[in-house]
Amino acid sequence: INAFPKPVITIADGLTMGGGCGVLLNASHPVITEKMDLAMPETAIGLFPDVGASLFLRKPPHDIGVMMGMTGWRIGAGDMLATGLVEHAVASSNTSALLEALIQLDDNDGIDGLLAEYQMDAASIAALEAPLMDAGAWIAQHFSKPTPQAIRDSLDGDNHEMAEKIRHALDTRSPYSIVVTHRLLTDNMLKPADILDALRLDFVMACRIGRYPDFSE
Fold it and tell me: Max Cα separation, the chain?
């Protein structure tokens, strides 16, 4: 998808998880609606965020991507736009019209202009909730810690509205996956140069993590 020579327009109009994130965020023109609900939940099954997540989960500020990868936290349209994961947003009610207009284009040069034409207005985007960005400083306070155990320890006794849900996620998901995911998203030695590098890393890690019992269980 990422290297396909023609434009790829992906519209995410609801729940988008795992491989769906790869289809959306590796497209040349990823588009979301206000119904967007995205997550990379792989630590719940003994795996790790793949499909190039070692690239796109490093984009959000305040260590938000690290938190998302370790906990499988679901993120809405407001945070998708505010964190810079996507730029294009269209109202869900306008997706059919956008698709028809795309089909009617004479050439690819008109795609960007058409997406701009259907872009949600500034007031509608401003009205979208962005709880992760609002809590960015708090998230960074914990998830900038050097190890998963340090992150978990720092959350003890914290009464922030997100704290208990995060503690629960860290306590109930695969410990091995959490450690692997933390390193994948924070170790600069593992930072991919491009999507091909990221997918090669995904492949090697998937082959290795399958040898451990968490994934099979």
Answer: 60
**Sign of CA pseudo-dihedral 96, 115, 51, 180:** negative
Could you say which DSSP state residue 60 is in?
Answer: S
Cα 93 to Cα 50, 143, 181, distances in angstroms: 31, 37, 36
In Å, how far are 53, 61, 64, 138 from 134, measured between CA atoms? 23, 11, 11, 9
pLDDT band at 59 (very low <50, low <70, confident <90, very high): very high
Tens-digit pLDDT profile for residues 109-155: 999 999 999 999 999 999 999 999 999 999 999 999 999 999 999 99
Angstrom distances, CA of residue 152 to CA of 18, 22, 137, 179: 24, 28, 17, 12
Buried b / exposed e over 19-43, threshold 16 CB at 10 Å, is ebbbbbbbbbbbbbbbebbbbbbbb
pTM, entire model: 0.93
- Adjacency order of strands within the sheet including 88-89: 9-12, 29-32, 88-89
- Would you place residue 217 in the very low, low, confident or very high pLDDT band (cuts 50, 70, 90)? confident
Q: For residue 205, give the 3-state DSSP assignment.
A: helix
Q: 133 - beta bridge partners?
A: none
